[in-house]
Design goal:
The chain is 23% helix and 29% strand. With 244 residues, the chain is α/β, with parallel strands linked by helices. The protein has one domain: 3-Layer(aba) Sandwich (Rossmann fold). The chain has a 7-stranded mixed beta sheet with strand order 6-5-4-7-8-13-12, with helices on both faces. Helix 1 packs parallel to helix 4. The longest helix is centred in the first third of the chain and has 10 residues. It is globular and about 50 Å long. GO terms for molecular function: methyltransferase activity.
Length: 244
């Protein structure tokens, strides 16, 4: 596939906005350093609560207080908490077109914002759904990532995040061990590529983190870590809490 490079790195947002504006002609295509190209159907990003997987439903059930939805995308989680649970929720994303879509869909508080530069504001719940923990990119960055998120939490606040253990994607030896390439420090680290309508973004760092590794990182950074729900395909929902 000969895709043209995308300069502004917002293909994801462009696809979301196209769908919102009725210009849906094709789906996003994603590829990683360990998986072949696959379609990401745009209607899935606009799903309602009943169409969400149990892990996301559980996260929305246990969210409380003032909420920050990090990497909100099309705003589906935000809209449920805002409209169905009447919570005060702020949606942020690096994608300007995603935020434009959120506003068109009726999200009250949506902003183009990097969570790592967010300061002087605190929340009771921080949502990192659809593998939101992966946005820190590499395992060596997770300490700084969690440390910053801690500054955004009210006392007794919680971080709700989901991810997956992708060890199953690697070949297994007869002794039960897995053959893992050595080009990354941690097997959950991948290079992620997005394509849309003949355009392609440069690969960016992404990460899937298994629960034990997350738990160790959380404890090392002053959090308690609780496994709330396990999915059907190596995925899980975790809650991180921090007491002042």
């Amino acid at each position: 596939m000969n895709a043209q490079p995308m300069e502004n790195n917002d293909l994801f947002g462009q696809a979301i906005l196209d769908y919102q504006l009725g210009n849906y002609t094709e789906d996003l295509k994603t590829e990683t350093s360990i998986s072949e190209e696959d379609d990401l159907p745009l209607p899935y990003l606009f799903r309602n609560y009943n169409e969400m997987p149990p892990i996301e439903q559980k996260a929305l059930q246990v969210a409380y207080g003032s909420v920050l939805d990090v990497g909100c995308g099309a705003g589906s989680h935000t809209l449920y908490l805002q409209n169905e649970r009447s919570l005060t929720i702020t949606a942020i994303d690096l994608s300007a077109k995603s935020i434009e879509t959120c506003k068109l869909r009726g999200v009250h508080h949506a902003f183009v914002q990097d969570v790592m530069t967010l300061k002087e504001v605190k929340f009771d719940t921080i949502l990192l759904l659809m593998n939101g923990a992966g946005m820190c990119g590499r395992l060596k960055k997770i300490a700084a990532f969690l440390s910053h998120l801690k500054t955004l939490l009210n006392p007794g606040g919680q971080i709700l995040l989901d991810s997956s253990d992708i060890i199953y994607m690697f070949d297994e030896d007869e002794d039960g061990s897995h053959w893992i390439p050595t080009d990354h420090d941690y097997y959950g680290e991948v290079d992620y590529i997005v394509r849309y309508k003949g355009m392609e973004e440069p690969a960016f760092d992404w990460m899937y983190i298994d629960y034990n590794t997350l738990q160790n990182a959380a404890i090392a950074n002053g959090f308690e870590c609780e496994l709330l729900l396990e999915g059907e395909h190596y995925d899980y929902l975790a809650r991180l809490t921090h007491q002042e």
